[in-house]
């Protein structure tokens, strides 16, 4: 990181309850305003007019049906004429927005930045069709290849390539997510009966609970952090890596060019994400950490997604991510790195444009030691990793608190 860049702190957070549900009586503007003002209220003493820049993410204009969204958001929140920079990068959008917000503050040009992301699928007559157009529509989508197909193909390959014969790992991952979700008052499954483990031995148990919601965070330079909170959390490392939406472009000879990840065999790229590995290595280098320093992680969970996320983040060896869940290591008492402590997309709920920030918000809560019964003991370093489309946009964010020592 350049000497001229400032370290950036997160001093306020806010998000929608039950993002795996449809919220028919709230417009997208109301969802965004509620999350944004919750984050502003969480940053003690901050007034909306003091925000001098913002970023807003949503799944894509084909889903939200609104372009030029920056001006609408500035007016909605009463922060005009502050600039609002828009992003449309599928499920990873709000994590990409955080990357932009970090750049804004780290550059020194902006002092108080509001980062947001949202999803309002109920506004669309054919949401499922629209959300799948997040692929390269001039090529792969024309041939019927949607980004959920990418997850399914990568998942099937992963399980077969690494020798998993049944769906025990799916059941274990889903069970852990539901257990955490029932400890999270904002999760979509909160207050619901816990499902039986044997009922989860199917890939469908690991589908995201799709719904609507918004998430927001307030960023300030490190030197101002204690003006707004007694428990600042710092963006220690942050990275975005991009590659083709289409899996066939990412395998074979030199799929990532000369920077092909060391230690990953070429035949494994179909069930692993080279972009995820690249983003993780970049974020870790910036943060000055290794995977051994991670106390907890939030990862995108859809079918086998969590498995190769653990592999790509270095928490497990390649192919061992599924076994990690089978062995119970993702749980609070598992003796390893707890995974998706807010319930993840499976149990917290999946609101596409807000997913990346929802991961970050859970890590902030954990690093502040405010997670109550789901609190990870001695949590000082947390990682959030999100995906856009079929692993075309990969984000990895390392957060730390004042207790963290490299």
Average pLDDT, to the nearest integer? 88
What are the secondary-structure elements, in order, as H or E? EHEHHEHEHHHEEHEHHHHEE
CATH topology of the largest domain: Peroxisomal Thiolase, Chain A, domain 1
CATH class of the largest domain: Alpha Beta
Estimated share of beta-strand residues: 15-25%
Query: How far apart, in Å, are the first and last alpha carbons?
Result: 16 Å
Which CATH architecture of the largest domain?
3-Layer(aba) Sandwich
Low confidence ranges: none
What is the number of strand segments? Answer: 9
**Shape, principal axes of CA atoms:** globular
Radius of gyration: 20 Å
User: What class do helices, strands and sheet pairing give?
Assistant: alpha/beta
Structure notes:
The protein is 30% helix and 16% strand. The two termini are 16 Å apart. It has two domains: 8-129 and 211-227, Thiolase/Chalcone synthase (Peroxisomal Thiolase, Chain A, domain 1); 147-209 and 235-400, Thiolase/Chalcone synthase (Peroxisomal Thiolase, Chain A, domain 1, 3-Layer(aba) Sandwich). It has a nine-stranded mixed beta sheet with strand order 3-2-4-5-1-6-9-8-7, sandwiched between helices. With 406 residues, the protein is an alpha/beta fold. A hairpin with a 4-residue loop joins strand 8 and strand 9. The longest helix is centred in the N-terminal third of the chain and has 15 residues, at 28-42. The protein has helices spanning 28-42, 61-64, 69-77, 93-106, 127-131, 147-161, 168-181, 274-287, 305-312, 321-326, 344-347, 355-367; strands spanning 8-15, 53-58, 84-88, 113-119, 213-221, 233-242, 296-299, 381-388, 393-400.
